[in-house]
């Protein structure tokens, strides 16, 4: 699992460790890791042209010390000083002592650079790149050089993943000690490129509960149900799907398709699309409705393609089992009914639906995804899965890390893809895990299924995502 901590926690941990070490030791660890990562990227260090973008803080110091190491190995290193009067003096002395130089003209050296180290700002930066840094950052990005961000891409908000102005998009980010939330959450994450973590020894001083966590295959594998010899279909869990309408029967079929691949022992469909569901999936138990009369289930999914059937939403929310609400269900739900529930509730909005639930603009939700998912979870007292290029899963209250999942691919943005996800997540929910675990496992499997279905770079249908789910289970359980 990758974990990310807030700046305040990183600074506290660094201070505790620094008090036990000689002056500058942590920066040397950071610079050594950074220089090694740069050396790995360059065909050869000797003779390569490296440009350092150096801001006013210790982030610039890291870049200068790493630049000194590369200069000692024969690289031609130029430093572009964005705040010459506040430069890290020891770092600059080390660079010049190793044969590096301060650039006379940033654009000249950037035009021929092989590698640019972005040390403008790290965890101390806020508010996007400043006006004097913008043309330099654009020239770096527009050059043929590979761009390596020091700790964070400059211009992003470390704690929230917001980008409030312009940021410098990197090919690789070398981060120190722990990930920062911005490296796991869009839109900042997309500026980071590949992320490499350098251990500088602060791990023991960081809180055990991070701000954000991202699950690996093995973490997800542990969340997936495994039937035992004593399991029957009821013990494995029955998931009820209240979805579809005369107008949108396909949503019911796709939600059932996801649910059948989610590990529940049986899928019970309730609603007006029973014929379409049975025609495609004869193993489904169908009932015309209402949900309250359909028979026992261990979890409900309500909403995909539901149209205007507010009664179905009300019925399902009145049940005493875990409930997932998606799509039309999110529009029709009564917030008080959600808050009054004692069994878990999982809401699965995309940014537009989240914006409607919060009474904000969609662009606001997209710009501040971490704050938005937490606000929704708190407002509804429910687990929330916010869809997007990274999926976020939050529980209400503080002290529980938000889960971020970047397994998805842009090809997943296709009609019906969300219906498959709700069926899948509901099916996992029926087998008994916490809503947060069911939601994050579902997001990961759904993302991997999308990747597998689109493996040859071709457009995919929602049905193909559902069909790839068994391969995604195998991929997660046996990544071999
Ligand atoms: N502590 C340690 O032991 C270790 C720390 N390490 C490294 O230190 C980094 C943190 O260093 P830091 O605290 O000096 O902050 P940093 O990110 O360099 O920015 C500082 C200054 O930038 C300015 N500024 C703000 N916003 C800005 C903007 N948008 N555009 C331009 N400038 C802006 C602002 O000054 P202002 O101009 O506002 O007065 C602020 O004071 C960390 O990310 C890691 O790389 C590693 O070596 C490991 C050991
Ligand atoms: K940086």
From TrEMBL:
Residue ranges annotated for the YjeF C-terminal domain, each copy included: 216-476
Reactions catalysed, as given in the entry: (6R)-NADHX = (6S)-NADHX; (6R)-NADPHX = (6S)-NADPHX; (6S)-NADPHX + ADP = AMP + phosphate + NADPH + H(+); (6S)-NADHX + ADP = AMP + phosphate + NADH + H(+)
InterPro entries xrefs: Carbohydrate_kinase_pred_CS (IPR017953), CARKD (IPR000631), Nnr (IPR030677), Ribokinase-like (IPR029056), YjeF_N_dom (IPR004443), YjeF_N_dom_sf (IPR036652)
Pfam name, any one: Carb_kinase
Domain YjeF N-terminal: 10-208
Keyword entries, A-Z: ATP-binding, Isomerase, Lyase, Metal-binding, Multifunctional enzyme, NAD, NADP, Nucleotide-binding, Potassium
Manner of cofactor binding, per the entry note: Binds 1 potassium ion per subunit.
Residues reported to bind K(+): 59, 118, 154
Enzyme Commission code: 4.2.1.136, 5.1.99.6
Binding locations of (6S)-NADPHX: 58-62, 122-128, 151, 251, 305, 350, 419
NADP is among the record's keywords: yes
Requisite cofactors: K(+); Mg(2+)
Cited function: Catalyzes the dehydration of the S-form of NAD(P)HX at the expense of ADP, which is converted to AMP. Together with NAD(P)HX epimerase, which catalyzes the epimerization of the S- and R-forms, the enzyme allows the repair of both epimers of NAD(P)HX, a damaged form of NAD(P)H that is a result of enzymatic or heat-dependent hydration. Bifunctional enzyme that catalyzes the epimerization of the S- and R-forms of NAD(P)HX and the dehydration of the S-form of NAD(P)HX at the expense of ADP, which is converted to AMP. This allows the repair of both epimers of NAD(P)HX, a damaged form of NAD(P)H that is a result of enzymatic or heat-dependent hydration.
Subunit text: Homotetramer.
Protein name in UniProt: Bifunctional NAD(P)H-hydrate repair enzyme
Source organism per UniProt: Streptomyces yaizuensis
Gene behind the chain: nnrE
């Amino acid at each position: 699992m990758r974990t990310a901590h807030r700046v305040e926690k990183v600074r506290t941990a660094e201070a505790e460790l620094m008090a036990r070490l000689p002056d500058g030791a942590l920066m040397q660890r950071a610079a050594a890791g950074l220089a090694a990562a740069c050396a790995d990227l360059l065909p050869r260090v000797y003779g390569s042209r490296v440009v350092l973008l150096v801001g006013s803080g210790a982030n610039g110091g890291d870049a200068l010390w790493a630049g000194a190491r590369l200069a000692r190995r024969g690289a031609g290193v130029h430093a572009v000083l964005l705040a010459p009067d506040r430069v890290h003096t020891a770092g600059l002395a080390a660079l010049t002592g190793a044969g590096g130089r301060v650039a006379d003209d940033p654009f000249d050296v950037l035009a021929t650079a092989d590698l640019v180290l972005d040390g403008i700002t790290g965890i101390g930066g806020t508010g996007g790149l400043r006006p004097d840094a913008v043309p330099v950052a654009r020239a770096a990005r527009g050059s043929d050089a590979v761009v390596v961000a020091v700790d964070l891409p400059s211009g992003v908000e470390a704690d929230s993943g917001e980008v409030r102005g312009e940021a410098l998009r990197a090919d690789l980010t070398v981060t120190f000690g722990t990930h920062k939330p911005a490296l796991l959450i869009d839109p900042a994450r997309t500026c980071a490129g590949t992320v490499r973590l350098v251990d500088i020894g602060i791990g023991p001083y960081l809180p055990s509960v991070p701000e954000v966590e991202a699950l690996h295959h093995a973490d997800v594998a542990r969340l997936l149900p495994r039937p035992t010899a004593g399991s029957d279909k009821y013990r494995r869990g029955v998931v009820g799907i209240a979805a579809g309408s005369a107008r949108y029967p396909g949503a019911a079929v796709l939600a059932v398709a996801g649910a059948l691949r989610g590990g529940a022992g049986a899928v019970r469909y309730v609603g007006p699309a029973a014929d379409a569901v049975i025609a495609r999936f004869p193993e489904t138990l169908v009932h015309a409705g209402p949900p309250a009369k359909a028979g026992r289930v261990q979890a409900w999914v309500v909403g995909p393609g539901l149209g205007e059937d507010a009664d179905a939403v009300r019925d399902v929310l009145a049940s005493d089992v875990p409930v997932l609400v998606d799509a039309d269900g999110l529009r029709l739900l009564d917030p008080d009914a959600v808050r009054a529930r004692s069994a878990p509730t999982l809401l699965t909005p995309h940014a537009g639906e989240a914006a409607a639930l919060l009474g904000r603009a969609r662009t606001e939700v997209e710009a501040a995804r971490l704050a938005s998912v937490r606000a929704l979870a708190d407002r509804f007292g429910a687990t929330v899965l916010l869809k997007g290029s990274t999926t976020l899963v939050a529980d209400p209250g503080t002290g529980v890390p938000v889960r971020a999942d970047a397994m998805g691919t842009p090809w997943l943005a296709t009609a019906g893809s969300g219906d498959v996800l709700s069926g899948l997540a509901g099916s996992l929910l029926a087998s008994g895990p916490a809503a947060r675990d069911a939601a994050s496992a579902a997001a990961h499997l759904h993302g991997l299924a999308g990747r597998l279905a689109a493996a040859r770079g071709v457009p995919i249908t929602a049905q193909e995502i559902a069909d790839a789910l068994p391969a995604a289970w195998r991929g997660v359980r046996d990544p071999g």
